Amino acid sequence: TSTSSKADPGSGGGRGGTTTATANEISVDFDQTREAYKSKDSLELLRSLVVFKLCSYDFLVDKNKEVMRCCLTKIMGQKGFNQFMKMTFYGQFVAGEDHMAIRPLIQKNQAFGVGSVLDYSVEEDITQKEAEQKEMDSCVSTAEKESIGKLEKKYKAHKQFGDHREGVTGARTYFYADEAKCDQHMETFIKCIKASGGSSMDGFSAVKMTALGRPQFLLQFSEVLVKWQRFFSFLASQQGKDGMEALEQRLELKQMQEFLTKLGAKGDFYDWFSGRKEESSGTIDMLDWNSLIDHRTNISDLLVIPNVELGELEPLLEMFTIEEENQMKRILQRMDVLVKHAMENGVRLMVDAEQTYLQPAISRLTLEMQRTYNKEKPVIFNTYQCYLKEAYDSVTMDVELSRREGWHFAAKLVRGAYMYQERERAKENGYEDPINPDYETTNWMYHRCLDYVLDEIALNRNANVMVASHNEDTVKHTLKRMNELGLLPTENKVYFGQLLGMCDQISFPLGQAGFPVYKYVPYGPVNEVMPYLSRRAQENRGFMKGAQKERELLWQELKRRVASGELLYRPAY
User: Fold this and answer.
1) What percentage of the chain exceeds 70 in pLDDT?
2) Stated pTM of the model
3) Which helix or strand (DSSP H or E) is residue 28 part of?
4) How big is the chain by its Cα radius of gyration, in Å?
């Protein structure tokens, strides 16, 4: 068996951050091939082996578009090519062409304890040159050409990085055309939500914020948020608080007011903060500081930052005009429509993370929605990329905000999909690389963020986390911590997630042990998901070279079936 329970899982369990639950420990064996591949027939196992082997050849991966488009399409014809793809790469990593075609796979996975996060993975397949031009066109209107020079290097639209897909291994991408196109994307997401609700219980649907608005707005809003946080860090350093964790930095209000008045600030920060707190401690932290942006229309005199070149204060929202406010409203309105459909269909929304120069705005808009809709239960999940140096600060501040405001914190933790693009962009444009220096540091950051959220769940049962990882050590670490904290799988507070077609030896044993585990399930027509499949092949190259275990287990199971006369085994459900 893949699980061993030392007691009835239904009986109590430890509570609180320090309680150890020795009575309810559940362990999962990830080496039992019979259990891991119970949902697969032998042809599916063989397909996995062939696809994973092909993904390990550099030439095929580097030239995959040319090989697929030119060679295979010409030799086989379009119909033959589609059939070949369904028997290989498409069949391995994509669930089907539309919401009807994907149902059998979703229901089969569900029967073996694995849920689905539906992801309609169609994207525009245009050339890199077209992508760059499209991005620049969307980002620079005539009225903005003069003011855009003031944006920090990180938050400019750069032609070289206009193609969001370049150097990206995991995510699908959208290019901005106009508001009508954003509405079209919203309708696509609605269909995905309905498909998720109609196919399984307690499903998820993935949403990408760049599909719902204009990238230039996300760039500008990100710049506003980051500049404001940096000003807080500067003020903290003036009070000798630098080097502390973000949440531990507290500014003395009187001291801060005196300093800002000397700089030329006209607003009364002391009065504003004191008036809003029933028991004012005379100090504020980063969350209090960030709350000023929520009230930006009434207190513009408080929202000032230093201009280092001019040596004076300037309005933070100088470039954040009525048009930007309208852009924000339109994105939030579209998100609002999606959340209402999700709630009607019993589906939760997973907001994908994107590039660092867009992410501050995406996270902030997601928080706005969580504040409204996560009051009673977790409906919207934000994604945190743990390869970022600031990941821990982001997680801890959002958890603390949810505590103060009384809503359910809900997170998906990933390592990250944009590393090569982010590094290249930072180097090219002369700002600090936002990515951790190596894989070990990223692992450490992932576990640090995960432990913090798990402790929070143990303390008040209001937080929720999806451990989206293919790393067996991370999954084992999570199980160990759950046992220590007395967190039972039946509480549905800790979820696990892997991509369809990968790491079945982790997903299915977890599901059969009673843990909430989900496959990220892409779907869409063969031709239109080719860009997604192309990047999946690239991601698998690194993954398959570094991890031989999955292939070994697949061979082991095939040999076991041959030896025991079960080669014609068909999953029963």
Assistant:
1) 82
2) 0.85
3) strand 26-28
4) 25
